[in-house]
Amino acid sequence: MLQKTDSPLFQPITIGDLALKNRIVMAPLTRSRSSDAGVPPDFAADYYAQRASAGLIISEATNISAQARGYALTPGIWTEAQVAAWRRVTTAVHANDGKMFLQLWHTGRISHPDLHGGELPVAPSAIAPKGQAFTNEGLKDHVTPRALETDEIPAIVADYAHAAQCAKDAGFDGVEVHSANNYLLEQFIRDSSNQRTDRYGGSVENRLRFPLEVVAAVTKVWGGGRRVGLRMSPGTTMPGETPLDSNPMATYGAYIKELNKFGLLYIHDIEGVTQLSRAADGIDYMAFRKAFTGAYIANNNYTRELAEATVSEGKADLISFGRPFIANPDLVERLRNGSPLAEAPKAYWYGGDATGYSDWPGMDGQIRLKS
Ligand SMILES: Cc1cc2nc3c(=O)[nH]c(=O)nc-3n(C[C@H](O)[C@H](O)[C@H](O)COP(=O)(O)O)c2cc1C
Question: Which residue from 86, 115, 284, 294 has the highest number of Cβ atoms inside 10 Å of its Cβ?
């Protein structure tokens, strides 16, 4: 292992015009503590500000519209009340010298009619995912979604643009387009979940059309790609037990080639199966890193040792950590010192109040309320 002080993980890096104080990113983490109106709680400002020693924080996935919702108690970014609540969060993060992007989310078929007044969730094709949705009444089986009509798609692209503008108004430093984990964008990309016959299905070019229209709309709002990142997960089968695309190297390779035209700040790649495994299943993530012209954030089951080796060998510019940030608000300091990490019981992951969320102490035993 490198000397602690020499570790590249703790060196500053500038990507685009964004100067980051280290190469550790807080990965997006849904924590399901918002109101039914999608407004984050006041104590979300404490939670995020406590973690502001990360080089960059990516917010929990945030719905771009009512139609985008797939889980109860998740936040949104399309109403004035939501923007006001997020502004409290970004103000607290900035006051603690942090930087924060908002993750823009549409869940597509990973949803439930209970979240849509009894209407079916929407998707590229009417194919039911396996598994269960998190509703206000607990877990319920996923249903067969309704396939979107071709002429409904421009309105969803407009919802992304509106949400991107709201994120700007809320004071975020940028946005991350959530094109991972088999939510709506990735449902369009993969031929396993997209069996459309219109211009949004069939060929790779057609399957990429909707995600690229979204990227075009979002980068337009943000004045180009310099403050826009994109998350992808070419090898994940989660959630919904979604099969991979039949040719992920060709499909995601074509995606990256197109994304380069927008000058995006970064891609944030979940390598392997989200949370579960780093098994690559024939996917060459380094080929994607090399093909992409912006920065590369690597994620999934990274330890300090693997993160250090990956950054030192030039295999990633930044590393994001998800689960370790839940119970370790001062994760950066703990990694720097080689200190033990606390582990959050799963019962605290989703839902509840400030307990198990913004009340984790730092190494000195203190709970910092920063907002
Ligand atoms: C509680 C929890 C919530 C998550 N929520 C999101 C999310 O909102 N958006 C997202 O892209 N990934 C989400 N993920 C995936 C993480 O960002 C990350 O990819 C995953 O946990 C693997 O990284 P890790 O091994 O460092 O935890 C979530 C994971 C967990 C455990």
Answer: 86
Ligand 1: residue of 323, 331, 334 to mutate (most ligand atoms within 8 A of CB) is: 323
Contact in structure between 64 and 106 (CB atoms under 8 Å): yes
Instruction: State which ligand 1 atom lies nearest to the alpha carbon of 103.
Output: 9
pLDDT in tens, 249-294: 999 999 999 999 999 999 999 999 999 999 988 999 999 999 999 9
Instruction: Please name the amino acid found at residue 93.
Output: V
Whole-number Å distance, alpha carbon 322 to ligand 1 midpoint, is: 5
For residues 249 and 284, is the Cβ–Cβ distance under 8 A? yes
- 13-299 belongs to CATH 3.20.20.70: yes
Identify which of 9, 25, 30 to mutate to test ligand 1's pocket (most ligand atoms within 8 A of the CB).
Answer: 30
For helices 153-169 and 80-95, give the axis angle rounded to 10 degrees: 40
- Ligand 1 pocket member 370 (CB < 6 A): no
256 near 250, Cβ under 8 Å? no
Percent composition of the chain: helix, strand, coil (DSSP 3-state, to 5): 35, 15, 50
**Nearest to residue 181, comparing CAs of 127, 101, 242, 258?**
242
Q: Which of 47, 48, 183, 200 is catalytic?
A: 183
- Residue-wise pLDDT for 205-224, tens only, equals 999 999 999 999 999 999 99
183 catalytically annotated? yes
pLDDT confidence of residue 371: 55
